[in-house]
Write a structure and sequence with these properties.
By secondary structure, the protein is of the alpha/beta class. It contains eight helices and 19 strands. A ten-stranded mixed beta sheet has the order 2-1-5-7-9-11-13-15-17-19, with helices on one face. It has a nine-stranded mixed beta sheet with strand order 3-4-6-8-10-12-14-16-18.
């Protein structure tokens, strides 16, 4: 069987096991997404943007079981006043969630939208994902658009008094979760969106985020610590004039995680920052593979983008970074910055990086850097010579290494919570 035939056969075999919601305002978008999936086929290892990460476990109808993780800690962000929206194995849990009413925002379930003929989310659902398919195909995002059954639509019209917190709980060892969230931030509005939890044994999650002129979205995400979970996430973001998007993701544990972020700066003076801190341990019989794939397009004047990704890897863990900045013709005064770094705590781990710049304007400042290294022996010696044991000294230097990514979180209280959790996990080595 040739490669195209194999791709098509695997795609159709998976599609045969899925059932699409068929009513409501998202139906046209879902059918179009299904057509895209069939036309492009699901990802294969030979695809350029999948050569570092095997998509095999997402191509099978059989879900690799993921043992439930006994998290003795309280949920992340529990110390903060927030509106909680809870999903258990991909299904909204009304009893565990707060009342969805909050000033300055309207929140609807995706399932409810599917039962209506007219809804504001119809202007976004599948639209940004479609735009993000060019020039790089992202078939798992299209699959999500076609088959997602739950998620939320968040319409921000003001400045809510507290963050909106999406909590994803994993309770079934074989849960196969497809979630799709849609966010619209109106002109001058501002909101903080928190996400945490593993969601399921296998997760395909997509978010489409449209930020109008002068709007602001702060996004902080912590992916669940379940060692055996697998996840593919996609974010598609469109920014208007003088709008701001700042996103940070923390990842600890997980067999396979791939986070894709596709950002379009379409209005002048827009700002987009995306960052991540990852701690990966392949100790024992566990695997750890973490992939950040980012594509930022500058298509307006005087815009700023930052990519800051730090990975700490040990015991055979693998980290991947693929980041691209595309500056279109006419996008003058662009300021694009990209940094990916890995700290290797042994000789068995690996970091694979593919930074790219593609520039068609002549008045820009763009840079990228990617480095891989071990703990600074001089700094380690300095700490040990002052009585700090090797383990705690290594943890201190690891936290210092991750600090630049965590500093991208604008709310210092949230950043402090992230640092505290990282410190605890490093100390316990799990």
């Amino acid at each position: 069987m040739g490669a195209p035939d194999r791709r098509q056969a695997l795609t159709e075999a998976l599609l045969d096991t899925l059932e699409m919601p068929t009513s409501g305002c998202t139906e046209v978008a879902r059918q179009a997404a299904l057509a895209r999936v069939r036309a492009m086929g699901l990802a294969q290892r030979r695809d350029e943007y999948w050569k570092y990460t095997r998509p095999d476990t997402f191509l099978s109808a059989d879900v690799p079981p993921a043992a439930l993780f006994d998290n003795e800690e309280g949920l992340l962000f529990d110390a903060f006043d927030r509106l909680k929206i809870v999903f258990v194995d991909g299904v909204f849990d009304a009893d565990a969630s707060d009342d969805l009413a909050l000033e300055g925002v309207r929140i609807d379930r995706l399932e409810d939208i599917c039962c209506t003929d007219i809804h504001w989310a119809n202007e976004i659902y599948g639209v940004l994902e479609t735009r993000g398919q060019t020039p790089v195909a992202r078939p798992f995002a299209a699959l999500n658009t076609a088959y997602a059954r739950d998620g939320v639509a968040i319409h921000v019209t003001g400045r809510p008094s507290k963050p909106i917190s999406l909590i994803y709980i994993h309770k079934s060892e074989a849960s196969d979760v497809i979630l799709h969230n849609v966010v619209r931030v109106e002109p001058g509005a501002e909101v903080t969106l928190l996400e945490n939890g593993p969601a399921g044994a296998r997760l395909n999650k997509c978010a489409e985020i449209d930020i109008a002129d002068g709007g602001t979205l702060h996004h902080v995400r912590a992916q669940g610590r379940d060692p055996e979970r697998r996840a593919i996430t996609s974010m598609f973001v469109r920014l208007g004039e003088k709008s701001t998007f700042k996103s940070f993701t923390m990842t600890v544990n997980g067999v396979l995680t791939r986070n894709e972020c596709v950002i379009e700066l379409t209005g002048d003076n827009a700002v987009a920052h995306v960052a991540g801190a990852c701690v990966g341990d392949g100790a024992g019989d566990r695997d750890f593979h973490h992939d950040d794939t980012v594509f930022i397009t500058h298509d307006a004047l005087n815009c700023e983008s930052r990519q800051v990704f730090k990975k700490v890897l040990r015991n055979g863990a693998t980290g991947v970074f693929q980041g691209k900045i595309l500056v279109k013709d006419g996008a003058q005064k662009t300021d694009g910055y990209q940094l990916s770094q890995a700290l290797m705590l042994d000789d068995d781990s690996q970091f694979l990086a593919k930074p790219e710049l593609e520039i068609y304007a002549d008045d820009v400042i763009c840079s990228h850097g990617s480095t891989t290294g071990a703990i600074d022996e001089d700094a380690l010696f300095y700490l040990r010579s002052r009585g700090v044991p090797e383990g705690p000294a290594t943890d201190l230097l690891t936290l210092a290494f991750l600090a630049e990514a965590v500093d991208e979180i604008e709310d210092k209280a949230l950043a402090g919570d992230i640092v505290s959790r990282l410190e605890n996990w490093l100390t316990r080595r799990n």
